[in-house]
Amino acid sequence: MKALITILVVGLIALAAWWYLGQGTPATPTNGDNSEPVNGPAMELPAASAARTQAAADAGVAYGDTEVISAVEQEWPDACLGLAGADEMCAQVITTGYEVVVSASGETYTYRTNFDGSVVRRAQ
């Protein structure tokens, strides 16, 4: 009986370790030093999708006619993503997000987003 309990406990510990280590993998790709664009699955980021939606609106084209060129994880100096207007007050808090470059109608648009893409601001 002790052997069975030992096997179950060891199995549960192994399962918990496997699950925990899997949780350590970032949900979104990052390059570590934030200096290079993140490609591949990063183009499916909510922030990239939000930037594509904004680019489509800015260019007057369909969402499907836009393409993410790059998405680079950044830390912005405030809640306005470092792009506050003259009459705008912004929370002074480091905001993690992305700089997303999108192509639409032959034009290139650069956007800053927060991490989940709920805030999108055109940088150029």
Radius of gyration, CA atoms, in whole angstroms: 21 Å
Task: Please state roughly what percent of the residues sit in beta strands, choosing from under 5%, 5-15%, 15-25%, 25-35%, 35-45% or over 45%.
Answer: 25-35%
Shape: elongated
- Main β sheet profile: 4 strands, antiparallel
Number of strands: 4
How many helices?
2
Helix content: 25-40%
List low-pLDDT spans. Answer: 23-36
Arithmetic mean pLDDT: 81
N-to-C CA distance: 70 Å
How would you classify the quaternary structure?
A: single chain
**Order of strands, widest sheet:** 1-2-3-4
User: Any idea how many domains?
Assistant: 1
Q: Would you kindly provide a written description of the structure presented here, covering whatever features stand out?
A:
The protein is an alpha+beta fold. The protein has one domain. It is built from two helices and four strands; from the N terminus they run ααββββ. β2 and β3 form a beta hairpin.
